[in-house]
Amino acid sequence: MLTKQRLKAVQHASNVCADIEGFDFNSYDGRDIEELRNYWLQYGVIRFRQTGITDQQQVEFSRHFGEFVIHPKQLQEGGHPTHPEILVISNAMKDGKPSGAMGNSEATWHTDTWFYEKPPAGAILRAVQVPPSGGDTYFLSTYIAYETLPQALKATIDGRQIFFQNVYDKTGKLRLGKSAPKSQDFREWSGIVHPLVRTHGETGRKALYLGGTIDGAWIVGMTRDESDALLAELWEHTTGTKHVFVQQWDEGDIMMWDNRCTMHRRDSFDPAFVRIMHRTTTSGERPV
């Protein structure tokens, strides 16, 4: 018979993340998972310190939070050799080729796969090997971003939709399966339209939804100049917040975030050191 452990969430001063204490990855039950899910929904980002779990344990744990989503990079350089559910994020090389995705460069603020019709609900990222410094991950709350907007700006964006092109990624590379468009106007390219302010499907709270870049994004119904100016203002407000949690990784740490109400970014790090992270991703709903 499993011994019930009392879980505890200790909120960080940033108001963005909470540390989970008392969860045993080797022995948990449905009540523990339900309590964890409630903490995840409450805080948006939760952290487990130095877990020491295996890939198989990560996959089994992740399965409790929804169906798996295959990240685009898993179909390219980020595939795992034995666990297809896992995206390998690494700058290590094998036989002269990358053994994982994303290398060692900076990753700017974004919500995961914002250009999907149904972006993922959550992500679970575990540190397998970390450099002595660098590669820190930053998180912010898009609930807070929306809630702290001036009232006039809230009124301006209320009911607005945002278009994201899905042909090129942030580095300018064609996405998998896409062809170079003939038009110079990205608004005529393949893309997806989402609400600029989305309502979380489980909590009912409103969150600002900016995706991952101003380039290739357009607020539907506005001129390009109007849209660019408003998006620049919203991005500055969102990323200029003091409410940012910084994760400085130790091996075995796990960060679990709600992709529907957070954004994150990563620092670059010295390519002389290897950083390996294993990530699982769970399915979400179309933003409304």
UniProtKB/TrEMBL annotation:
One Pfam family of this chain: TauD
Q: Which lineage ranks, top first, belong to the organism behind this chain? A: Bacteria, Pseudomonadati, Pseudomonadota, Alphaproteobacteria, Hyphomicrobiales
Tell me which family the UniProt entry assigns to this protein: Belongs to the TfdA dioxygenase family.
What are the alphabetically sorted keywords of the record? Dioxygenase, Iron, Metal-binding, Oxidoreductase
Q: Name one GO biological process term.
A: sulfur compound metabolic process
Give this protein's Gene Ontology molecular function annotations.
Answer: metal ion binding; taurine dioxygenase activity
Domain TauD/TfdA-like spans what residues?
18-281
Native species of this protein?
Rhizobium mesoamericanum STM3625
**Organism domain of life:** Bacteria
Any one cellular component term from GO for this entry? cytoplasm
The identity of this protein, by name, is Taurine catabolism dioxygenase TauD/TfdA
Supply the InterPro entries for this chain. Answer: AtsK-like (IPR051323), TauD-like_sf (IPR042098), TauD/TfdA-like (IPR003819)
